[in-house]
Specification:
The chain folds into two domains: about 160 residues, Rossmann fold, CATH 3.40.50.1970; about 200 residues, Dehydroquinate synthase-like - alpha domain (Dehydroquinate synthase-like, alpha domain). The chain contains 18 helices and ten strands. The strands form three sheets. A six-stranded parallel β-sheet has the order 1-10-7-4-2-3. It has a two-stranded antiparallel sheet with strand order 5-6. Helix 7 packs antiparallel against helix 8, helix 7 crosses helix 9 and helix 8 crosses helix 9. The protein starts with 13 loop residues before the first strand and ends with a helix. It binds fe (ii) ion.
Length: about 375
């Protein structure tokens, strides 16, 4: 795989290969706030060290996966984090996004409400002279959040999704720690690497696609397929972890340039209304979206990329993704949906203009109905 540093878009990102224990030792001081979920603190033995009073840093763990904006805003109104110099986030995309949200609200911005919506507003004068430095240790391999300024939060009461960004919210330093991935539960590895697959394909069929993305797309797809294939057949993941971590960050860089498209647009109501984890919701439609995009646009382009990755053509790649989704037991998440069909009333919400309009062709609600129906039928024939 091409070295990350060889890709010019990466020059703004600092990436280190380092074990988490070294990072924890390095930032074990009172100026650091560690943002990590209770589960991660347990998994990486930080809870133990905390009980033994070996840790000097403060810890923030008051959030859940797909973090709730009402809950977080309440906490931020009560606590001031602006005295910290560093935030060390250890976890998946939700953790990294919570860390970004804390930094935004501790520097130049604050959260307000307008017309029943949360709005990020700029302060007249910043709380600090420099933003808090964000060092992140992604413990999954998929969200790409480490490479973007976006913080995604959810209003679980009103079933709405928020994405905030500032010009200072991209993490300053990314630590790739292979042993963290080895400790990650397999279902989270599947979800997060499927998210990487989705980010890379969403860049491929994006209106903002540029030829400079070709090599990163092919590199990212090669590594992601190797990793997912290894999970599906149950072989040793160790040899594939480093390239998968790079693929994940690379995919994050790609969507930082193009933003996501149709697969993500369709995914959001599945997450907010049915609780389908993000990586599953944004990947189960990929084969059908690829086929539909191909039939309406330049199929030579898709075939060229698929051949570079190692497939016969793009249709062969779509078939392979479909088999992978079945072998990875993705259908399990949709058991309730197979029975109810409730999703058909959410077609309008699946067409989120800020994402859907990035797709190379414009899908209408009829197209979305077709994409989701066909995808669910394939998954139900497991
Ligand atoms: Fe995603």
């Amino acid at each position: 795989m091409e070295k990350i540093t060889n890709w010019k878009k990466y020059n703004q990102l600092q990436i280190l290969n380092e074990d988490l224990s070294n990072v924890v030792n390095k930032y074990n001081n009172r100026e650091t706030l560690v943002v990590s979920s209770k589960g991660s603190l347990e998994r990486f033995v930080l809870s133990d060290k905390l009980q033994k009073r070996e840790l000097k840093f403060s810890i923030f763990d008051e959030f859940t996966p797909e973090p709730d904006i009402n809950y977080l805003t309440n906490i931020l109104n009560k606590k001031d984090f602006s005295s910290f110099t560093n935030i060390l986030s250890i976890g998946g995309g939700s953790t990294i996004d919570v860390a970004k949200f804390i930094i935004m609200n501790s520097f130049e911005h604050y959260i307000d409400r307008e017309n029943n919506r949360f709005v990020l507003k700029k302060l007249k004068s910043a709380k600090k002279t420099l933003p808090i430095s964000h060092i992140t240790v992604p413990t999954t391999c998929g969200t790409g959040s480490e490479a973007t300024p976006f913080a995604t939060l959810w209003d679980k009461n009103l079933k709405e999704k928020y994405s905030f960004q500032t010009n200072y919210s991209t993490p300053k330093l990314i630590i790739h720690c292979p042993s963290c991935i080895l400790k990650c539960p397999q279902k989270i590895l599947i979800q997060s690497s499927l998210d990487t697959l989705s980010h890379t394909l969403e860049c491929m069929w994006n209106k903002k696609f540029s030829n400079s993305f070709l090599i990163p797309i092919v590199d990212s797809l090669k590594s992601t397929f190797k990793f997912l294939n290894a999970i599906a057949v149950g072989t040793d993941l160790k040899p594939h972890i480093n390239s998968m971590q790079q693929a994940s960050t690379l995919a994050g860089c790609l969507i930082n340039q193009t933003k996501t498209a149709s697969a993500h647009s369709i995914s959001y109501p599945f997450t907010t209304y049915f609780g389908i984890p993000h990586g599953i919701a944004c990947s189960f439609t990929l084969p059908e979206i690829l086929r539909l995009n191909m039939s309406h646009s330049n199929s030579v382009f898709y075939n060229t990329i698929a051949k570079e990755v190692g497939f016969l053509d793009a249709l062969n790649m779509a078939d392979h993704i479909e088999k992978l989704l079945i072998n990875l037991n993705v259908g399990y998440y949709f058991d309730d949906i197979f029975l109810t069909q409730d999703w058909t009333s959410l077609l309008k919400e699946m067409s989120n203009p800020s994402r859907m309009l990035n797709n190379i062709i414009n899908f209408n609600e009829k197209d979305i109905l077709k994409i989701v129906s066909k995808s669910l039928v394939k998954l139900s024939n497991k």
